[in-house]
Backbone:
């Protein structure tokens, strides 16, 4: 079977799952969470490119930015499918939340505070200032004698 037919078949299955998820939102949410877990596991199972000792010293075998291109394995194909389905389920969930019209608003704009939970206005501080203060008694400065006392 040619590769294009396989990919078409795989994405047709994904679109069928999205259609079922549009009709049954609980299925879509469950599928999205399972897809996230599978995507994380698939990415963790893959080996890094040029992660061995030769890659540390520039011996990756090619002058490309991300190392040599290897053959597409089952894990790389599964990663592509899971990533595409993750993006599609994210879009479908967001469209489902807004009722099918993108850009309508956010969840925060739809929520309102009940009347009982609104904060009470802050009371004004009460300050009492004295009406009249008596003048402070004047302190006399210490006097310095003009001349020191004469010694006899």
Residues:
């Amino acid at each position: 079977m040619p590769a294009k037919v396989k990919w078409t078949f795989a994405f047709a299955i994904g679109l069928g799952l999205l259609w079922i998820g549009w009709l049954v939102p609980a299925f879509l949410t469950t599928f999205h969470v399972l897809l996230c877990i599978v995507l994380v596991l698939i990415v963790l199972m893959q080996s890094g490119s040029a992660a061995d000792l030769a890659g540390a010293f520039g011996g990756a075998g090619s002058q490309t930015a991300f190392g040599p291109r290897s053959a597409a394995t089952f894990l790389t194909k599964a990663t592509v499918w899971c990533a595409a389905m993750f993006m599609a389920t994210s879009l479908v969930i967001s469209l489902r939340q807004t009722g099918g019209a993108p850009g309508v608003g956010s969840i925060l704009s739809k929520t309102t505070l009940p009347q009982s939970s609104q904060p009470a206005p802050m009371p004004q501080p009460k300050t009492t200032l004295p009406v009249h203060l008596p003048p402070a008694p004047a302190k006399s400065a210490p006097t310095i004698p003009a001349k020191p006392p004469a010694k006899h």
About this structure: The CA atoms of residues 25 and 96 lie 8 Å apart. The chain has a mean pLDDT of 75. The chain has five helices and no strands.
